[in-house]
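Most newcomers find our protein records easier to grasp once they have seen one. Sequence and backbone structure share a record, each on its own labelled line. To make this concrete, we reproduce a full record directly below:
***
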Amino acid sequence: METDLDGLTDDEREQIKDATRTLRKSRTVSLGMPGIRLPEPDLRLERDA
């Protein structure tokens, strides 16, 4: 396969890279599992009276 890629033009190689990126993005699996949200930090400053 690598020898076949050597025979391609730079434009053809770039098209293959773009197609590969698109396929990898579409193959990402989402199981529908809920994410775990971390509690937000308490940013209030403690002040002595």
User: Anything to note?
Assistant: The CA atoms of residues 34 and 43 lie 26 Å apart. DSSP finds two helices and no strands in the chain. The mean pLDDT is 81. The helical segments are 2-6, 10-26.
